[in-house]
Amino acid sequence: MPRRTVCSVLLAFAVSRGAVILLLIVGSQIAFMGKDYSTVWRTEVSLSTGRVLPELSRLAMVGDPWFYRWIAISGYESQTPDRAPKNTWAFFPLYPLLIRALGGGGSRFPIVAMIISNAALLFALLAVAAAGRMLGLADEEAERAAWYIALFPTSYFFSLPMTESIFLLLSASSFLAAARERWWASGIAGALASATRVIGICLLPALLLLPYQRSTRPARRHVWLLLVPLGIAAFVAFLYVRAGDPLAFIHAQTLWGRVGSPAIDLSVLPKGLVISKPWNFVALNVSAGLLMIAAGVSFLIRRQWSFAAYTLLSVAVPLSSGSVQSLARYALVDFPMFYWLAIVCRTSTRDRAVTAVFVAILGWMIALFTLRLDFTLA
Length: 378
Known about the structure:
The protein is mostly helical. It contains 17 helices and two strands. A two-stranded antiparallel ribbon has the order 1-2. The chain is globular and about 70 Å long.
């Protein structure tokens, strides 16, 4: 890549992670001392060397990271006589196993996991920019896409013990390897991605369509792409042995209110404009879903079949559960959508407007996350 593009991506990483981690540190140091007038909280923010890492670790371990830590330390729960689904079954194995392999399976889990997540994000942004250039984007568009990903309203998940960073790295690397005609590497990266998150399986049809997008024909070497489903296939086989249910990762979704129905719950709409529900920032998730659909349709019109398949499948998979919950997190790793957004926002006015909106919402979301508001954790 040109030095300018590399420097732009590095700057996007440094600026975004610097701001995110600083806000998380400050937020983790807020102490609620009591109330004045029975309504106003008295608070104290005191930064001391001894409190920063412990409090940051405690903040980072709110929500899903506990299940990744459980898996890293104890493995997956086995089936019990009541046949009830278990929480850990919903989480794919690559990320917690990687943390365990790198020495983060014990009390050091939060810090080791955050280091891995942030390091993976750096290489993921470089892979996104490189893949974009290889697949037809101009340098400034590839750079802009990296900035938009780094500043997206839910991008704080990239710095937490979550799978977003490693998944983005693997999926973008799979596209990059395919663009460079290294189909064996593309298949391996895709297999690792499908062992990280369920939407990794969306890489298979998207990569199979890539030759058509590039006006070439499929060849024998593309058979390497059949490696992509092996990650999820291995997890399915493991769950069959461990839980007696090869689809346990799907059935466990009921513990989060996902019913496995394509009918989206719109029962609240007659009551007025719904901004948020418990564990679901409806307004942001719906906006992210519409953005993904718009990008996918635009790719179809432009006959960019690979990007269209990946983007539309990435929104169809979560919607198939009957909920818009966490759609903004699915959008976060849908890097072709950011290619489309970077192309749409070629003008400086649009670029500044999108950047301003992303930064404002990101800062607000981080502030609410430090207060443990449920919808910022989902």
